[in-house]
Amino acid sequence: MSNHVKYRIGKSTGFQALTIVLATSCVIPLVAILMYIIKAGITKINWNFLTNVEKPVGEIGGGIAHALMGSILVIFFASLIAIPIGILCGIFLSENKKSRLAYWSRLSVDILQGVPSIVIGIVAYIWLVKPFGYSAWSGSIALSIMMLPIIIRSTEETLKMLPDTLREAAFALGMPFHRVILKVIVPCGISGILSGVMLSVARIAGETAPLLFTAFGYQFFSTNMNKPMETLPHLIFKYAITPYKDWQDLAWGASCILLIWVLLLNILTKLITRRWKVQL
Amino acid sequence: METSVENELITRNDISLRVITSEKIRDIVKGIKRVKRSHRQIRAENVFRRTLVIIGLAMVVLVVGIMLTLIVQSIPSLKALGIGYLWGQTWDPVRDVYGALPFLAGTLLTSFLALALSIPFSFAVAIFLGEYYPKGWLANLLKNTVELIAAVPSVIYGFWGLAVLVPIVRSMEASIGIPSIGYGIFTSSLILAVMVIPYAASLGRSMIQMVPSNLKEAAYSLGATRWEVIRSVILPYTRSGLFAGVLLSLGRALGETMAVTMVIGNTPLMPKNIFSTGNTMASVIANELGEADKMVYNSALIELGLVLFLVTVVINMIGKKVISRFTNE
Amino acid sequence: MESTIVKSVDYNAYFGDNHVVKNVNIEIPRNNVIAVMGPSGCGKTTFLRGINRMHELIPGATAKGKIMLNNEDVMEMHPIFVRLKIGMVFQRPNPFPNLSIYDNVIAGYKLNGIKLPKAEKDKIVEHSLTRVALWKEVKDSLTKKGSFLSGGQQQRLCIARAVAMEPEVLLFDEPTSALDPISTSTVEELFHELKKNYTLIIVTHNMQQAARVSDRTAFFYMGELVEYDNTKQMFTNPTDIRTQNYITGRFS
After folding, report:
1. Interacting residues of A263 by C-beta distance below 8 A, sequence separation 6+
2. Domain ranges in chain B?
3. DSSP state at residue B90
4. Is the Cβ pair B11, C31 closer than 8 Å?
5. Which residues contact C225 (CB under 8 A, 6 or more apart)?
6. Does C55 contact A at CB distance below 8 Å?
7. 3-class SS at A229?
8. pTM as predicted
9. Are residues A88 and B55, on separate chains, in Cβ contact within 8 Å?
10. A54 and A190 belong to one structural domain
11. Looking at the structure, do residues A39 and A95 belong to the same domain, yes or no?
């Protein structure tokens, strides 16, 4: 009897130990990747690297300035499209919990959230590249479609959590609907909405698949949104699969920058959520 | 009686007095301005409401549009190749022979292998954070780290896999005496396994935390050990939630493109075993769509996209249904 | 005879098919405190929310009949106008958590986009806070967030917010039910002050409170207005058997 109890306790402890080992070992690949990328990349970053553009193989001093600029532009315009639409759609869903349109709209957002990024790329390619050719715009639009579900869901969830009394207080002061939403409800939920926006930016900053056949890539510095444009993740992909050491080095430097950029966005999101939280 | 009459007189006087003061007149003017402003507000209110409805509708249009676009663009391939396309074993665009089976097989193999590799880890994280250590700095650290796994761009996973995993797998293959390539299904699955851990882990954690404590206490009061509580109370209770988490991971693995493209080898052949090279639906699209100039070729690739779209939609919908049923109970 | 400010004519309110307020006819005289009481679920709050058209904010809620404010039917007016003239204070204090105390008081102007010179805003804030006896307590912390105040102070802040808009009528929906006894008595004292300038309609489930603060009392039961009379008259000599039962505590 007592042996049996001991056996059970031992089994329990054993399982706990196994869980702890398995769970904590999940940290290993992330740490390994971070360390490797930073070690391989940090030495490649210097002034030339940040200000020069692509040079032919063999010539030293190539840089990623064109990709940095391209990423900033493509992300900026994607945000410009997705943020207002996403927040407004989130408001629509939280304000219309039961209408039939809201049901279908919510279902659509759910579907959109699960669509693989490569499929979004295909669709942007069909809609924009087939008729107009490769352009940075088509990349921005593809990325903005990927941002939408993240912004919409976080806005909806945040606004739903706000107490109804807040809304009533505003209506009772004779405020019109749009002011109630924009001046009271949105400011009170701003931390949740912002964190959704930041997460969506972090998410698309590293996206490559939708850009493969939209923004396409370009070896020169360009700010023309109607033309193809290089972006950071695409540059990494392009250089990583070449056999040339120079270009691979550029890719390591670019990976390092992209990684730091994305991780900073994620950490910043956490800080903002905490700092800007409106105490209810 | 008298006092009430007096009161009334005072009130009346009060009112008449107030009416004639200049302040009151100013108030009235202000009131009129306010009314004008309010008319503008009402118009703005209607515009705002209509905008919201239009945007809500736009989401439906967008998703329906995506689906219709994929279907319409797949028609040339459906007409030319028929449904047999999905079972064809040869992919040779130069000779206009298109068969998608190698890619279907590649996708399913990498995804399910990745899932099998990742489940022990993601469930361990879920149990660790949901039951053993829900609070404290260690839990926070692990939670944030696991979230960061999802934040790392897939192209970086791919590059790292290319530089680190491929050589490791190659020497491993050499040591067990099979053709040592390094690229292939197995390497892709390893990377995918890491990438999909967070999805099942975070959903599993929130599900485990929702287990009512009185259920657990009932089991403890009967003398159950912690492991027995987990096995006979927590896991059965959260079964559907854990399943949904696995589905989300699967959906993610099926559609993952860049990391897989960079390490799978990109050969359009049926994989013979888990160490052979191959190609997935997503990676063949990534590699070939940009240069597929022939109508049927292009359309065949888009049809693969349509299949990918439909499969992930179905998987995600089932996952969402399971979650919502679980949380409503 | 005092002049009537609010009058309802055959007012009916529904939640979907649920008929919650039935044919209410009531005349409310200016500068009075009216207590509305009755057992829970009797429609008293719904009726109150009908007066400034808050009722229809709830999905599926509809209303029929007339509510006259100074001989104008509020059912015909746009709700925004109605709510500028009829202020409301809620069961739980609900200051805007993102605004300072100062901004909470002038929230009705600020958030409605009505621009006022700073001096005038200061005047309104001081005036409104003085009216609710909160000025002395908060004049040094006007920039702090409203949620930093105690429950009773928050509720007075909400009253100040309604008062700042200079409405004609103030509606109170069980304004003290979430407050402690001391805060409750402070708020009750306020009613006496406020009625000099406004007409107050107060929904309460507390009979003592109705007796203490009101000039007239309306008793609702199962969605009907059973009795409406001078408060003293009502509590000493109710005419309807249901009122009598309620007052003597036969049901609650």
Report:
1. B148, B151
2. 3-73, 75-328
3. -
4. yes
5. C24, C25, C26, C218, C219
6. no
7. strand
8. 0.87
9. yes
10. yes
11. no
Structural domain including A12 reads: 3-44
Asked if A161 reaches chain C (Cβ–Cβ under 8 Å), the answer is no
Q: Which of 3.100.10.10, 3.40.50.300, 3.40.640.10, 1.10.3720.10 is the CATH number of B75-328?
A: 1.10.3720.10
Q: Choose the closest CB to B159 out of A113, A203, A255.
A: A255
Characterize B279-309 residue by residue with b for buried, 16 or more Cβ atoms within 10 angstroms of its Cβ, and e for exposed. Answer: bbbbbbbbbbbbebeeebbbbbbbbbbbbbb
Bridge partner list, A185: none
pLDDT in tens, C177-203: 888 999 999 999 999 889 999 999 999
Q: Is the pLDDT of residue B238 over 80?
A: yes
Is the domain of A199 the same as that of A230? yes
Residue among A33, A88, A120 whose CB faces B152 most closely: A33
Domain co-membership, A52 together with A39: no
| A76 and A122 belong to one structural domain | yes
Rounded Cα–Cα distance for residues B194 and B191 (Å): 5
Query: Tell me, what's the pLDDT at B30?
Result: 65
* B42 with C31: Cβ contact below 8 A: no
How confident is the prediction for chain A on average, in pLDDT?
92
Q: Kindly indicate the confidence band of residue B16, based on its pLDDT and cuts at 50, 70 and 90.
A: very low
Measured distance CA(A197)–CA(C203) in Å, rounded: 43
A194 touches chain C (CB under 8 A): no
Question: Given a cut of 90, is residue A27 above it in pLDDT?
Answer: yes
Q: Is the predicted pLDDT of residue B4 greater than 60, yes or no? A: no
Largest Cα separation within chain A, whole Å, is 79
Identify all chain A residues contacting B253, using CB atoms and an 8 Å cutoff.
none
Which of C81, C98, C162 is opposite residue A188, by nearest beta carbon?
Answer: C98
Tell whether A26 and A66 lie within a shared domain.
no
Please indicate, yes or no, whether residues A77 and A175 belong to a single structural domain of this protein.
yes
Give the number of A-B residue pairs with CB atoms closer than 8 Å. Answer: 249
The reply to whether C113 touches chain B by the CB within 8 Å rule is yes
- Asked which of A92-96, B114-118, B136-140 is least confident by mean pLDDT, the reply is B136-140
What per-residue confidence (pLDDT) applies to C108?
A: 87
Contact B132 A108 (CB under 8 A): no
Candidate from B149, B152, B226 with C-beta closest to A262: B152
pLDDT band at C142; cut points 50, 70, 90: very high
Q: What distance in Å separates residue B11's CA from the closest CA in chain C?
A: 9
Residues B75-131: pLDDT tens digits? Answer: 999 999 988 898 899 999 888 899 999 999 999 999 999 999 999 999 999 999 999
Number of Cβ pairs < 8 A linking chain B and chain C: 22
Report the chain C residue with the minimal C-alpha distance to residue A162: C97
Which of A20, A108, A116 is opposite residue B308, by nearest beta carbon? A116
Q: C80 vs B41: CB contact, 8 Å cut-off?
A: yes
pLDDT reported for residue A2: 79
The closest of C22, C21, C27, C34 to C3, measured between CA atoms, is: C27
Residue B325's pLDDT is: 86
Closest chain A residue to B39 measured between Cα atoms? A176
B142·A108 Cβ contact <8 A: no
How near does any CA of chain B get to the CA of C222, in Å? 33
Nearest one of A72, A59, A86 to A222, comparing CA atoms: A72
Do residues A116 and A13 share a domain? no
